[in-house]
Fold these 2 entries.
Entry 1:
Amino acid sequence: MATTTASRRDAPATVLAATVAFGLLLGWATYDLHGATPLLERATNSVSTWIIWTAVAGALIRARQLAVWGGALMMLATCGGYYGASTLGDTFGAGGLGTAAVWSAAGVAGGPLLGWAGWTVRRGRGDIRAVAGAAIAMVVLGEGLWLGLALHYWGEAAVFLAVGALITVVLTVCLARAGVHRYWLCAVLAPVSGLAFYLAEEGILNGLLGSL
């Protein structure tokens, strides 16, 4: 009986439906809580908030392929939840459709990577787990660089960089304890990939948003 219940929970339709529901809730909460307090002001206006939760969702999914698909669907659902709440709140605006399209496209590109990364850190084998850990920390470090170098919000940038460094350390230690041979790759690759993430966000994403 327990095996049958577990199988139903792991069924692709059930897993993906739960992931979409999670994404819709996250998007709605991001909009609803935005600006509620100074702390939530940045936390709910952050690429990291959405993407880190996508990695968490990937870690909770048992099948790698479902984690990848779930990452894409969750990011789409998160965008849908956010802009749906924005529409109901009458703050969508004339340029909202283009902005939503750009963020949805970015989510489809990044969601599968972070879904895979979450799954791999928890369930993968070999040194690829360290690479996946770096991919998770990359997002927070990259956004920290963007806040500082592009927007000159140095106080907030320091917080994001500190959190990104902490995530890197925690993941590296966990991977070392799990017996990953080259666990140190997480610490080495995280800042490098964080810089690459910043360059992509500044050069590609902001360019697309600025053209709307």
Entry 2:
Amino acid sequence: MLIQNDVENPNVKYIWYNGNVRFPPLERILTRSDDEDDFAIIGKRANIEDLPSGYKILGYFNTPYSNKLSSAIWLVSTKNNIDLQNGNNFVFNSPNIDVRSAFEKFINNNVVKEIKPEYYGSYLLQSNKTSIKLTNISLCLIGLLNIAVSTLWIIKDKNLISILYFYGFSINQLFRIEILRKVFPIIFISTLLICLAWVVQFLIYPLWDQEWILKFIMALIGNSLFLLAFVLKTILYLVKKGGNKI
């Protein structure tokens, strides 16, 4: 989904989309036929004079608490016929993993200047900056807490590891046992949650950004590698401390 607008008239936006796109809630006044490519969705306080000819009003935004949508005019088309006279500001949303590649195909590989979200729009509000920082700090603290709890969890097994080692279990067998008991459940449950989030994103909210899921996957991989290394280090330390078996 690509949104184009002119800075001098930001209320009028040109919308192009491919696939199944969920629009904001609206009150329909017309039923769109399959052969109609262009239609408009407007706010109830929008300036109707800004509506170009050739666009039929499909409905009104049913968002009474949104000042922007109440004054907005969305000119929606399924045809990729971008005209730079309509503005040179673009906002692009895509469920594709390689968003940049999908965007370049959408605009026929024209040269564009990318503006980071944190330097534009509501991201500049101090309240939003603070909330983002608090969210990142909270995620870091949760990650550290998870590592600390998992580490204590593994340390508690040191007596069991020592007993199994002297009972005749090899280092490889001990490593596999600890992986199955401690590391695998964390990886399995986290993977299920990631898959569930991915399905929800694609089936319910297809315009969600995927960056948070990718960061969660990277955090899971990093935490899993740490736990694997710590399990192996704990086993080797206990084996070395216990000496050779008779």
